[in-house]
Amino acid sequence: MIFQHELQNTEKSFGECLQQQKDQMDALDQQNRRMVEKLQKELQKLEQSIQRVYTNQRSTTISHINYIQSIKEQKYKYEIKMENELELPCYRNRIFSIKLKLVRNNKLIINQNNILVELQIWTYDTVPKKLTHNNKGQSIYKGCQQAVIKKGKGQLGRIQVREVSSHFPRGMFMIVLVPVDDSGIAGDENKYEIKASWIKPLIIQEVSIKAKKFSDRHIPYFVKTDGTIQVRLDETK
Question: What pTM did the predictor assign?
Answer without folding.
Answer: 0.69
